[in-house]
Design brief:
By secondary structure, this protein is an alpha/beta fold. 41% of the residues lie in helices and 17% in strands. It binds manganese (II) ion. The site of manganese (II) ion has 6 residues, from loops.
Length: 320
C-alpha cells in the first residue's frame, strides 16, 4: 500500500476538470496508462471532465482517442504519467498549472508536482495506475484492465526486463482473471504491424554499424523512414526489437524528429549502465533504456563515442 494513492484519490475527487499528460514521443506504456486513468476516473465520477493531453500518434489510434482541447483551464488538476521532467511533458506547459501530480517509474530528475508518486523499482507507469485503482475506490472495467495489461507488457518487453518477479506476475494474473481479459487479442493489438515496418526493420538489420567494442548504432533520417512508409515513433521504438545480439552490448538509434525539430537518440543496453551518460548529455531514463534529444550533431558524435568507450570497458571487465 502506498499512502500517496489515497492522497491522489482525494485530489481527483476535488477537481471537476482533470488533464492527464504524458511524455512526448509516447510509447504504449505512456498511451495506455493515460487512457486507462482517464477512463477509470470517468467511470468512477461520470460528471467530471477528464482529458488525455498530447499529440496523437497514428499507430496508437486503436488504443483510444487523444482529446483535442482548444483552451486549457489553468485551474484544472494535471496528472502527469510516465514523465520525469518538465521539458518532456507533451501538450501543456506545466509551469502554468498549480495543481500537479506526478506518477512515474523513471529515476528522479526534477520535482514539478505537489504530489509525486515515484517508484523506479516498478516496471511501468501502467502498473502504478493499476496500484492506484486497486488501493482506492477508482473503478475498473475490461477496457481499462486491457490497457493497463498492455502498458505493463510493453514496458517489460513481455515480462522479460527487470523488475519482473513473482509479485508482478501475480498482480497481472489477478488483473487477467478478474477482468476476463482476452490476452491473445490484446497481444495482437500491440504486436501486429504493417509490412512497411518489417521492411524498415530489415533495413536497420542490414545497416546497423557494429564496432569491435560491442557498440551498435544507426542513423535513420526522415527520408529513409518515409521511404519505408513508416513514422518516426515506430522507427525509434524498433530499437527494442534489436536486443540479445551476441556482438552488441549497447545499441543506439538516432532519428531525426521534424515535429520537435531535434534528433531523438534512443539508447538500449544489456549490460553497461547507460542512463548516467544520457543524463550528462541532457537526457535520461532507466539504467538499460535511456534517451537524449538534441539539435546538435556534435553532441551526438560525442555521445556515440562515449558509449563505444563504455562498451570497451565493459567488454574488458566481463570477457577477461
Ligand atoms: Mn514507461
Amino acid at each position: 500500500m502506498n499512502s500517496l494513492n489515497k492522497k491522489i484519490y482525494s485530489e481527483i475527487k476535488k477537481f471537476n476538470t482533470i488533464y492527464i499528460a504524458r511524455h512526448i514521443g509516447p510509447d504504449p506504456d505512456a498511451i495506455c496508462s493515460s487512457f486507462a486513468l482517464r477512463e477509470s476516473i470517468k467511470l468512477t465520477f461520470p460528471d467530471k471532465e477528464v482529458y488525455a493531453i498530447g499529440a496523437s500518434v497514428a499507430k496508437f489510434k486503436s488504443f483510444g482517442p487523444m482529446d483535442k482541447i482548444t483552451s486549457l483551464d489553468k485551474n484544472a488538476l494535471v496528472i502527469c504519467l510516465d514523465v520525469p521532467d518538465k521539458k518532456r511533458i507533451d501538450g501543456l506547459n506545466i509551469e502554468e498549472y498549480k495543481n500537479v501530480i506526478k506518477i512515474d517509474h523513471h529515476p528522479f530528475i526534477e520535482k514539478y508536482g505537489e504530489i509525486e508518486l515515484i517508484n523506479d523499482q516498478v516496471g511501468s507507469a501502467s502498473e502504478l495506475v493499476l496500484d492506484l485503482i486497486n488501493e482506492t475506490k477508482l473503478k475498473i472495467n475490461t477496457n481499462i484492465a486491457g490497457n493497463l495489461f498492455l502498458g505493463m507488457v510493453a514496458d517489460s518487453n513481455r515480462f522479460l526486463f527487470h523488475p519482473t518477479d513473482a509479485k508482478l506476475l501475480r498482480k497481472v494474473a489477478d488483473l487477467i482473471e478478474k477482468n476476463k481479459l482476452n490476452i491473445q487479442k490484446l497481444y495482437t493489438k500491440l504486436y501486429e504491424r504493417p509490412i512497411s515496418d518489417v521492411r524498415l526493420m530489415g533495413y536497420i538489420a542490414e545497416n546497423l554499424k557494429v564496432t569491435k567494442n560491442g557498440f551498435a548504432y544507426i542513423e535513420l533520417d526522415e527520408d529513409i523512414i518515409n521511404s519505408f512508409n513508416a513514422d518516426i515513433s515506430s522507427a525509434s521504438n524498433m530499437i527494442n526489437d534489436f536486443n540479445n545480439i551476441s556482438e552488441v552490448y549497447v545499441w543506439v538509434f538516432v532519428t531525426n524528429d521534424p515535429t520537435n525539430k531535434n534528433y531523438r537518440i534512443n539508447i538500449r543496453s544489456r549490460g553497461p549502465i547507460v542512463n548516467e551518460i544520457a543524463m550528462k548529455y541532457g537526457g535520461g531514463g532507466h539504467k538499460f533504456a535511456s534517451g537524449v534529444r538534441t539539435t546538435d550533431k556534435e553532441i551526438i558524435l560525442k555521445l556515440l563515442d562515449e558509449l563505444d568507450k563504455l562498451c570497451k570497458e565493459y567488454k574488458n571487465k566481463t570477457v577477461n
